[in-house]
Please model this.
Amino acid sequence: IHESHPAWFYCLWRLAVPCAGVHVFVRDEKRYAVLFQSVVLPCQYNSVSTQTAVVQWVYKSYCRDRSGGSYDTGMTASYLDCSDNSRTVRTVASISGSSVTLSEYYKNRDISIINKADLRIGEVQWGDSGVYICKVVISDDLEGQNEASVELLVLGKLSELSAWELSLPYAIHLFGCFRNSSSSAVIDVPPNTFLPLAWFKHRARDQNQV
Model:
C-alpha cells in the first residue's frame, strides 16, 4: 500500500469492492395471498453492468405441507431446511429483455414477470405455497449476491365472515395491502375479502402477550 494511503483507506476500499457486483433483494420476505386472487412477489436488483440481465424465478415447495396448518407469520426451520431432493423444485418463469418464458408446468397459468423482476401470479392455487427464489444472471457481472427468496402462503377465502367477527385492529385494514408491524410479512387482500378467523385470533393473542 502506498504510504500516502493509511490502513483505514485500504479497509474502506476492500469493503467497497463487493458493491460493484450484482445485488438482488426482495422487499418482503413473506407474503400471503387469498386463494384464486392474484399476488405479486417483488424482486429488485442493482448492477453497474449495461448488459441485459436474465431474471429467473424458481419455486421450491415447503418441506412439509403448510396449507392446513397454523397461519402464524413465523416460519420454522422445519418447513424450510431440507434438501432439494426431498421436495418439489421447478423453474416458474424467466425473462431476458422483454421476452418472458414460462416453464412447461406453468404454460396454462396467468403468470408473468413485471417491473423488470417482479413475479406476478394470477389466481393463486393451493399448490403455489412455498419458497420462490429470484435469481439474476448478468454475463459480465458474476460477483455479489445474485439471488434472494420470498415465501408465499396461500390462504383460504372465507367471505362469509363479517368484520365484526374479526379482531378489529386487523379487520379495519383489510381493504388493500395489510402490513404486519411485527414482521416483514405482507398480505395482499382484495376488497370485501376476509381471512380465516383463526389467523386473526392467533395474531391477537400474540399481541396481548407482548
